[in-house]
Design goal:
With 174 residues, the protein is an alpha+beta fold. The chain is 18% helix and 45% strand. Strands 1, 2, 3, 4, 5, 6, 7, 8, 9, 10 and 11 form an eleven-stranded mixed β-sheet that branches. The radius of gyration is 20 Å and the shape is globular. The protein starts with a helix and ends with a helix. The relative contact order is 0.23.
Length: 174
């Protein structure tokens, strides 16, 4: 009986250790920010080549309020300016273009800015973004106002390819 009790104790202790390690690892990878009724989940960007002058910013925005709000812009010390962009197909060519009125987030809804879709574009990078780097930024909402965030520079193997070949070379405003 003593051996069985000891084996159960060792198994339970190991299971608790593994569960705690997974929770800590998950919490370390995810990061969230809040302003008013707006929750911003896990801002991130990919590492950029040394000659790149733009980078995409990706995150989720959830409006927990009762009225719509709008992401209208932002800033970052890492870039000359920040714009909110969409991906469009123009004559069979996928391009990114700025959204003059930003992105509306309706009450109770979540908007995902991701590769190949809506995104934040950091223009005029002051230096390449490197894996593991933390990039400070500010997002500005029409009603909730500004919120300080941090983009994690990471590979995102679970994300789809951006769908915009050579965006840094082909980036044009339309």
């Amino acid at each position: 009986m003593t051996t069985i009790v000891r084996d159960i104790f060792v198994f339970v202790t190991a299971a608790i250790f593994v569960a705690a390690s997974l929770l800590i690892a998950t919490a370390a990878g995810a990061h969230e920010f809040k302003v008013g009724a707006i929750d911003i989940g896990h801002p991130w960007s990919r590492p950029t080549p040394k000659d790149a002058n733009i980078a995409g910013g990706y995150l989720t925005i959830t409006n927990k309020g009762k009225t719509a709000d709008r992401l209208i812009g932002g800033a970052s010390p890492a870039a000359g300016q920040i714009e909110v962009h969409e991906i469009v197909d123009v004559d069979g060519v996928t391009k990114t273009r700025p959204l003059a009125n930003g992105i509306e987030i309706k009450p109770g809804k979540t908007i995902e800015l991701k590769p190949g879709s809506l995104r934040i574009v950091l223009l005029g990078l002051k230096e390449p973004l490197q894996l593991g780097q933390k990039v400070k930024g500010t997002l500005v909402f029409e009603k909730a106002g500004p919120v300080e965030i941090v983009y994690n520079v990471e590979e995102n193997p679970g994300a789809a390819v951006s769908g915009v070949a050579g965006v840094s070379a082909q980036h044009k405003h339309h």
